[in-house]
Amino acid sequence: MENKLRKLRPPLRLGLVVLGVMAAFAAGPGLLRSSQAGPSDFLKAVKSNPGMAKALCRQFNAINADGHSVYSSTGLEQVASSQGISTGDAEILATYVVGLYCPSVI
Fold it and tell me: Are 49 and 83 in contact (CB under 8 A)?
């Protein structure tokens, strides 16, 4: 039973993070700095290209297979360098992609 609960925790936590990010965007630019007011280009790219999201899921699974979480500093650095974005943006991208396309990724 405890093992089943452990498997539910990361997706639930991820879902809460995604909801928080969506709520911040829905609240409008007043909560965000002007440079963050609109959705980032990399999120637009993933939204319009599900194949890109699936490729990212494969990358995230490979990071997991190497014994790292996508959300660890090592995992975020790998995602950031492969996408040409900051580690902060990589965390947002990973949260979005994992939440919608590959919830089994940790």
Answer: no
Helix (H) or strand (E) holding 20: helix 2-27
Alpha-carbon span 44 to 60, nearest angstrom: 19
SS3 state at 48? helix
Distance CA 58, CA 37 (A): 30
DSSP sequence for 62-82: HHHHTT--TTSHHHHHHHHHH
Q: Residues for the chain: how many in total? A: 106
pTM beyond 0.85, yes or no:
no
Ramachandran area for residue 98 (φ above 0: left; ψ -120 to 50: alpha; else beta): alpha
The residues of the chain scoring below 70 in pLDDT are 1-40
